Task: inverse folding
């Protein structure tokens, strides 16, 4: 691994200042960054370890929401009783990701900022506009089974790999960011950028910007679920995943939340589908129509065209289950 | 660090992984370098009782921690793996056993998995489905999964303290 300097600040001001320097990078649990450094993809001069900062608790917010510290480990968050009862889809999403060992290491903030698993991003011998701007994209006509179909560009079709973020997108989570100019709050759905002409720029964060917490608004009174489809039963990235919440009253959808994973360069909030669902009947036809509308803009390649059908089926199946559970109540 | 019960003082560069520190500096070659990218689980050790992938851990981040490798374990799972043919080549075995020890502690502490039904982790032994899901971070290229599962099931219900 390329040598680097290591600092472990104990207060947030020092962490932000250290990371604002050129070539500096924050380190959480290391499960993604250490791997990328070993591959030579990430080449920081200084690594700023944030795991000593006092952001390791999950705290109550007025009104029933939760404030999740950025260095809380994902296994601890998934097991938190309040998360399991108020935001079951978040616990399910966390437990659908990675392995027991990795979840004991990975932090919430690190999960938000993990890089894509596109094989061409990881392979230094390949063309990748995200890794080396202007070099091209070997995924376009290569092994693109795992790549994105929504929000992509001709420069990059890499998918965002997080499960947690998909649930957070559906839950209207807000990310608290501490920068050199103070603290600001960014809706999770605005944190990540689509690739466009600059796939190397992945988030709205500036150098030194430190994610300190994720805030969850009070839970919606709806059935919710995270459903993940992948190539093996466990410990694999999503081909398609769905985070959904549905509230049905007298056969009519009164509230719908829908976000998709594995299909876009960022956690994909399916607002078009939500718009079509709310106020309509909670039936198969309506679910199919909403899913099809959300996926209408899909831009597929030869290896990932199947994701349109898979995403549609997974959305419909998840909504169907949620509506049946609602009817049983 | 405290490693397998003894205090070790190490001077390591920040880019040295915990796995390399254990293997190359302390001679503890039980934890294996399988994939070196967090995909196989052969490097699994316990850090303050929690199972982790030592290959993705920078040693400096575990300054002051208590590390347990297979060399520091005396656990009924070890005999159970022999009894149930929980391995063929043995390369993944130290990671499998450390992972299983951590996994059973997680189960007993009530930590859920994605196959946990309902709000509570059931008291008593974990089911086969629970063990398969919770052990998915440890690959066995010989395919000794059925023996591994039997070994863990054998020990899981018993008081191992």
Result:
């Amino acid at each position: 691994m390329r040598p680097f300097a290591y600092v472990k600040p104990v207060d947030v001001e020092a962490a932000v200042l250290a990371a604002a320097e050129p070539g500096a990078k924050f380190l959480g649990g290391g499960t993604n960054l250490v791997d990328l450094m070993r591959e030579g993809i990430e080449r920081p001069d200084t690594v700023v370890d944030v795991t000593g900062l006092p952001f390791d608790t999950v705290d109550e917010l007025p009104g029933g929401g939760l404030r999740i510290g950025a260095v809380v480990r994902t296994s601890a968050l998934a097991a938190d009783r309040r998360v399991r009862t108020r935001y079951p889809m978040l616990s399910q999403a966390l437990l659908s990701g990675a392995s027991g060992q990795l979840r004991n290491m990975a932090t919430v903030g690190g999960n938000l900022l993990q890089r894509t698993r596109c094989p061409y991003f990881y392979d230094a011998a390949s063309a990748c506009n995200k890794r080396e701007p202007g070099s091209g994209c070997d995924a376009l006509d290569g092994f693109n089974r795992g790549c994105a179909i929504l929000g992509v560009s001709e420069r990059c079709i890499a998918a965002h790999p997080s499960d947690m973020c998909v649930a957070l997108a559906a839950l209207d989570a807000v990310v608290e960011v501490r920068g050199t100019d103070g603290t600001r709050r960014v809706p999770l759905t605005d944190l990540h950028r689509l690739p466009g002409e600059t796939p190397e720029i992945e988030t709205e964060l500036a150098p030194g910007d430190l994610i300190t917490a994720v805030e969850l608004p009070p839970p919606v009174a709806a059935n919710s679920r995270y459903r993940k489809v992948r190539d093996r039963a466990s410990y694999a990235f999503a081909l398609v995943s769905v985070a959904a919440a549905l509230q049905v009253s007298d056969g009519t959808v009164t509230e719908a939340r829908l976000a998709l994973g594995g299909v876009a360069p960022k956690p994909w909030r399916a607002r078009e589908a939500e718009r079509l669902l709310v106020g309509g009947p909670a039936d198969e036809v309506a679910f199919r129509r909403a899913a099809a509308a959300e996926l209408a803009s899909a831009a597929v390649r030869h290896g990932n065209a199947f994701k349109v059908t898979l995403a549609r089926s997974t959305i419909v199946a998840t909504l169907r289950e949620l509506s049946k559970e609602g009817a049983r109540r | 660090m405290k490693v397998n019960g003894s205090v070790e003082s190490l001077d390591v560069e920040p880019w040295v992984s915990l796995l390399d520190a254990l293997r190359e500096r302390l001679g503890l070659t039980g934890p294996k370098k399988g994939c070196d990218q967090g995909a196989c689980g052969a490097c699994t050790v316990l850090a303050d009782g929690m199972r982790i992938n030592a290959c993705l851990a920078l040693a400096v981040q575990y300054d002051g921690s208590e590390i347990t490798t297979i060399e520091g374990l005396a656990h009924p799972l070890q005999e159970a793996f022999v009894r149930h043919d929980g391995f063929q080549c043995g390369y993944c075995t130290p990671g499998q056993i450390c992972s299983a020890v951590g996994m059973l502690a997680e189960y007993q502490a009530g930590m859920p998995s994605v196959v946990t039904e309902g709000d509570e982790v059931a008291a008593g032994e974990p089911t086969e489905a629970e063990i398969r899901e919770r052990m998915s971070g440890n690959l066995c290229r010989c395919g000794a999964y059925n023996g591994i599962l039997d070994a863990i099931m054998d020990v899981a219900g018993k008081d191992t303290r």
Observations:
- Residues 300 and 306 of chain A are 9 Å apart (CA to CA).
- DSSP finds 13 helices and twelve strands in chain A.
- The first helix of chain A runs from residue 12 to 20.
- Chain A touches chain B at residues 1-6, 8, 27, 29-31, 34-35, 37-39, 47, 49, 51, 75, 78-79, 84-85, 91-92, 95-96, 98-102, 104-105, 233-235 (CB under 8 Å).
